[in-house]
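Most newcomers find our protein records easier to grasp once they have seen one. There is nothing in a record beyond a sequence line and a structure line. Getting from the letters to the tokens is the skill we practise here. An example says more than a description, so a record of this kind follows:
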Amino acid sequence: MRFWTKIHLVLIATVSWAFASQAQLTAPGRVLTLLTQYSNTAKQDSIFVFYGDIGTLSARHTTGNSASFKWYRYNPLISNPALRFEQFAEETGVAQSNQLNLTEGGYRVVITDITDSTETFTCWLFTDNVTLNRIDIYNSCQFLELNPITTPSSYNVAYDRFVYHDLSRSNQPERNTYGQQYFANVTWQASESRIELPSSSALKLVIENPAPLYYSTYTVTIQNPFGRTLTLTTPEVAAITTKADNLIQVDENGVWNDFDANAEYEALLGLRLESKSLNCDSIYWRITTRKITPESIYDITVWRDSSLIAQRNEAFPDKKVMVPGFYKVYHYSVNTLSGCIDSAITDIKVDSSRISADAIPNVFSPNGDGKNDLFRFSDTDESIRSIRSFTIRIYSRSGKLVYTYSGNPRDWEGWDGRTSLGAEAAEGVYYYIIEARGWDDRRFARGPYKGFLHLFRGK
């Protein structure tokens, strides 16, 4: 009889694998059934998932006969893996045994029916009772942080919950795949469409560079591995930061054109500063230039301005301060309620004074044919930069002054070959001297701007 029993147990054990699909260990009320991923065996145990704090298991022998049921719970704190299943309940003389109010963990039932046939079933029970309680809000000038708070905490969910042990290995290592994946599918939405959210699906949301510039509510949605959706929306979150932005235009012959960092500008440079800042009530402007002395190098402020954004958003620096040099235009936007400040800095170069020697011709023919009739600068826009005033004197070879002009070089139309008395100057060689002073107070006095010119009257 004993020999038969051993054979019978072997057969039953073999048959029990085949009957696993008939669910002799079931979980009434479960919402999901998964399988373990033991590494050293093809046979896997069931994972029963319940929504809530507890679950239920029901067991019966494959034959349906009355049997005795011994229930065990897995205790991972026991050092010897072979002893970790501890008995906690027993029931005899019934065809089906139910265990109610079970908490999360590993369970095993050993069933022996009236024919001495023994079957063993093992499963893992998960209770998904995670709740999304609130969203903690940390609002600063640099960033907005939204941190969903769950019970249990997100850390405990990732490392202490939804755990099973690999029973196919001798040391039965822990597997917490589902806990670590619990917050893998997180989405955030802002009610204000102009707010750009990070593309990452992290549970904690951080919005920076810049922090939100518009009031908005924020909704977090968590799709967990068990098909549950957790969602929560914040109250409206105030936008407290500010973003400094500006448009700089330069006066070019009476026309305002957008500032180009690659372009060359000359003194006196007219500027139009327009604030494009967001979420601010006050704006400030400041222009500095670099001062170099034998003792030190430092920046000095040459102009400043401020206004309430509701009153005006533009400013016009005094042209007199924009002499040749290197400048920084600082624009500050201020949200006085929150105390947040932001700034934008633009570098501007104003050309040093110069008159290009290549722009001075050495021959002209004032004969009225419309070609080269004037002795004048060529391409004044490029050849004359940041000149405050200039004087040109033209002498005959004998040293007699025949022509002079003082004023703005851009207003000078050129010498038409007539003397200051109105008579036509004779053909020949003349000598010119140009004296000039730039807006940077650089003085060109009989420097490189002198030379000979030839006057021809022939057709």
